[in-house]
Amino acid sequence: MVALLIVFIAVIVLVAVANRINVAYPIVLVLGGMALGYIPHIPTLQLQPDLVLVVFLPPLLYWESVTAPTSEFRSGALGIFQLAFGLVIATTLVVAAVAHAVVPGMPWAVALVLGAIVSSTDEVAFSAIADRLSVPRHVIGLLQGESLINDATSLVLYGVAIAAVVGATFSLAHAAGALALSVTEAIAIGLAAGGFAVLAWRSIKDDTLQGAISIVIPFVAYLPAYYIGASGVLSTVVAGLFVNRYTPTVLLPRSRELVTGFWVTVVFLLNAFIFDEVGIRFHSIVVGLARYPLAHLLWYGLAVSLACIVVRLVWTFGQALLPQARDERDWSHVGVIAWTGMRGGVSLAAAIAIPLSTSVGPFPERDLVIFITFCVLLATLVGQGGTLPYVIRALRVKDDGANEQEERKALATTAKAALKQIDELQRESSVPAPMLDALRLRFRARWAEFGSDEDTGKAARTTALYRKTECDLLETQRRALIALRNDGKIDNTVMRRVQRLLDLEVTSIQLLGATGQSSLDD
Asked: I need a surface site. Which of 21, 78, 251, 415 has the fewest CB within 10 A?
């Protein structure tokens, strides 16, 4: 319990530091965790290896898939496929060859375990860095799609290699067949889990229960696949992508609000926990490798890290040379994709989940595999992730503004639909005219700001002032509300309900303001 408390306190402090110095938090968490690990007698958590994969991965993968830019997945399907399958297999084989060559006595099966562990990239690590950068949405979509699917490929290869180490035999034909079967079973289970969730949401119209269903779904998708030997990762991703299509219609508005707040917090804590905890474990891992000279350990880590980086560079630029990529090729974007190979939570979880023993004794070189995985994480997350802003600036990559353009289109279209409905209500005389006039004024202002009229910029400046004034008035109301509670004139429960109403109004104003600001910047 003390160890868990230390980790979460460290997460809060280190992420606050990362925000203050404007550095992506996974980088600071790993480095801070390493520093904490060298504090004498600091308690560490003793996590069961299987628990890491079963508890941590499903929620992380589910939320990533639910919030993914699915339209970019469709347009970039070929590139995603080549990275998520071809690159993972190539990285696994090259890393295995390098590890077998540079580490004396490392068996091929163990080298393949290492190759599978470090072959997949981490979407969460990339997103934490990309949120601070101006990157086109189609590039982000390609990288997110790759990382969501490549986890399935790498973990299937990981399972086959683990089986070879613990006693089973390894064959390429068996690995290919296992991958094909795993993918098929995972897709079927994921679709079934997603269908179950949608039916449950349609049948149950209760805010709390709908939120509970959302929490259960990742494990409903992951665990059956995991226990039959299929890809629990892919099953979870498929379920998330499936329900993503239906949540706008089957979830109640209040449920969406609760679910989003829950998942944002939980996914952040789980991901941060992994980075910080493994950083803390680094010292004990190094101590367990005392039989190796330090120079040899650094050489092993450097060789495998370079293999991962070089394979991705060669593969990505080679992929861009293919005829089918000629029409949409932008070498600056290719450079960003090639340099964005950060490893993170999935690789760390897979390394920790290596069995402690086999049928004939301890798992060979387990601590060394974890150490090399950590070196790859440092090289890619800190090295590549830390230098990515400079690479983006050097390549002059800019945000394509796709999100802002589509947000403006959506707001203008919905405002126009509302105005049309107001006119219909006026013809029916079913709503008092003064009420319709007030509503018409509101939606005309939104159409003027986000529509295609020439005076959009002027409308944006006017509504920006309106929103600022409205926020000031909401703050005044908030202070008056708190004063009522403090004076004992209203109960705390009443204050919280009214305060939530004010908070939702502020959130709405801020979201509209973030989109409208683009007109002022033009």
From this structure: 21
Q: Which amino acid is at 427?
A: R
Contact 211, 262 (CB under 8 A): yes
Q: Is the dihedral of CA 348, 351, 354, 356 positive or negative?
A: negative
Q: Which residue has the tokens 């403090």?
A: 486
Q: Which amino acid is at 519?
A: S
How far is the CA of 180 from the CAs of 177, 185, 186, 222, in angstroms? 5, 9, 10, 17
What is the per-residue DSSP string for 250-279? HS-HHHHHHHHHHHHHHHHHHHHHHHHHHH
User: CB of 94 within 8 A of CB of 367?
Assistant: no
Query: Which H or E element spans position 148?
Result: helix 137-166
Q: What separation, in Å, do the N-terminal and C-terminal C-alpha atoms of the chain show?
A: 53
- Look up residue 254 and give its two tokens: 């209040």
Other beta carbons within 10 angstroms of residue 43's beta carbon come to 13
CA distance 352 to 375: 14
For residue 170, give the 3-state DSSP assignment. Answer: coil
Which two tokens mark 521? 């910047």
Query: Are 140 and 70 contacting, i.e. CB atoms less than 8 angstroms apart?
Result: no
Tokens at residue 232, please?
Answer: 């629990």
The amino acid occupying position 283 is H
Contact (Cβ atoms closer than 8 angstroms) between residue 39 and residue 54: no
DSSP letter assigned to residue 358: E
User: Can you tell me the distance from the alpha carbon of 267 to that of 281, in angstroms, rounded to the nearest whole number?
Assistant: 21
**CA trace torsion 38, 42, 48, 51 (10° rounding):** -90
Task: Say which residues have a Cβ less than 8 Å from residue 450's Cβ, sequence separation at least 6.
Answer: 408, 409, 411, 412, 415, 456, 515, 516
Nearest Cα residue to 9 out of 343, 46, 132, 17: 17
Q: Is the dihedral of CA 274, 275, 281, 282 positive or negative?
A: positive
Q: Indicate the residue type of 349.
A: A
